[in-house]
Amino acid sequence: MSTKILEQYFVERQLRTSLFRVVTPYLAFSEIDFQHHFNQRRKMHGVDRRERKLKNLGSLARREPSQDELWQMFRLFDRRWAKKLDTSGFTKGKKRDFFERLTMLKGEALQVEVDALVFENQWIAFTYGLCCRGRYVTYALAHEPTFNLFGAGRIINQETIQRTFAANYRLFDMSIGYEQYKFDWRSDIDFTRQMLASSGTKRTNLLAGFLSLKQRLKEYMKGNHRVVDWKRNTLGHLRYLVKYGKVKDWLEYGQQFVEKFIRLKQVELYELSPSEDVSPQQPVGNLFEEMSIQEAMQLDQEEVMALFYKGYTIYKDSFAETNKPAFALHAANWRVDSMQIVEALPKQTYFLAYDVFKQIDIITAFFRKIKPAQTLWVTVSFWQWRKRKRLVQLGYKPISRMKHYKIARFERHHVEKYTESGGRCTFCPLKVSDGISQCSIFIFSKSQPIFESL
Question: Alpha-carbon distance 159 to 136, whole Å?
């Protein structure tokens, strides 16, 4: 029954009505050239590139899970929404039992289909969809937080779209909501409507007015992306901190909050060439070995998984009782994540990251053993004065200094380069010659920092 028929019914009986609606993007397979649409959309946000990175690191596949594997779906949903505000109740109490029992329906007009994205035999994303008369409706979607940079949620969404097309579904309904990935894939939009009618008595008019005001407020909040983001992420994170947060978590959150208004950062780049290495020879042997992504997955640390995404080779202590990263090397780029800087390395040069200061002597000796003819670059923040002092003792030389100041809407970037190997300025096309080269950029920003647009 359409809303037009309902509206006509209320008009004939002279009943006061209020109409509320929420956008519902959908993909109608019959209205598009699917292969062209699919190939074009899967490249948005670099999803095809992220998928290739995952496949290069290990085995990646989509599969339909059995009934005794569904506990992984609920566990993954809880992990994804642990620091966010979830209002669906998908994994709570009787609702969990209800959604699990729905998956047992087979051969009926209504049935449930679950698609799991599995990487190295571990679930990293899933979709839970309701299917009825040629229409697939996405009800729940979640992904492993440590695989956030790999776009696991977007990958499983496109895999499900491809499967439903192959299964001859008419519509892929992405359910209500203003999430960007839904608008990226939709061919058109519809609306889920709610109608509120009052019989005209004082009591019903008062109740209808209250419900109408509530729905108007709810409609506005759902249509405002900033409000939705604040409610889902900010309030959700605060709730998580109140329930489970430790002192370290509160300090990190406080630091992130302050840096939205005041940010003072200074990072220096040091170089150690084979000809200038004065570090003492140490018998390092096979002290370090490469860490596999399967080992990193057991650590459950997003920061470590991000190193694999960025192309680092991670080394661990060969004799440690538990797997733990010791340092990481990159052969193509050097980067300062706190300043959103990524630059290409010169030839015959490696970049050292995620290093432990107390082991810098051993790490340097190990690098010299495995890469005897290569140059090593490493960054030091302003506060790491002990590390800076030790690097100089080992023969490292400063080649560049980067500063970033932000106070309210005023930002300044200042770069000093001491050698030609310091490369090109990250923030402007200034070329570097021998000696010292400096540049400064003043920015008055009303919205996002300049680094986010570089």
Answer: 13
Check if the beta carbon of residue 399 is closer than 8 Å to that of residue 421: yes
Residue that is written with structure tokens 């960054």 in the block: 379
Q: DSSP alpha helices (H): ranges in 230-320?
A: 236-244, 247-259, 293-299, 302-309
Residue 447, Cα to own-chain centre: how many angstroms? 21
Listed in order, strand segments (DSSP E) in 273-381 are 288-290, 313-317, 325-330, 333-336, 341-344, 349-353, 375-381
Amino acid at 35: Q
Whole-structure pTM value? 0.85
Give 117-175 pLDDT, tens digit per residue: 999 999 999 999 999 989 999 999 999 999 999 999 999 999 999 999 999 999 999 99
Q: Which helix (H) or strand (E) holds 85?
A: none
Strand pairing category for 288-290 and 437-444: unpaired
Element (H, E) at 389: helix 385-394
Dihedral over alpha carbons 237, 241, 243, 247 (to 10 degrees): 170
pLDDT at 198 over 60: yes
Query: Residue 126 and residue 179: Cα distance in Å, rounded?
Result: 17
Q: Which residues pair with 380 in a beta bridge?
A: 268
CB proximity list for 451: less than 8 A, separation 6 or greater: 339, 340, 341
Could you say which DSSP state residue 292 is in? Answer: P
Q: Between 179 and 446, name the one with better pLDDT.
A: 179
- The stretch 67-75 carries a mean pLDDT of 94
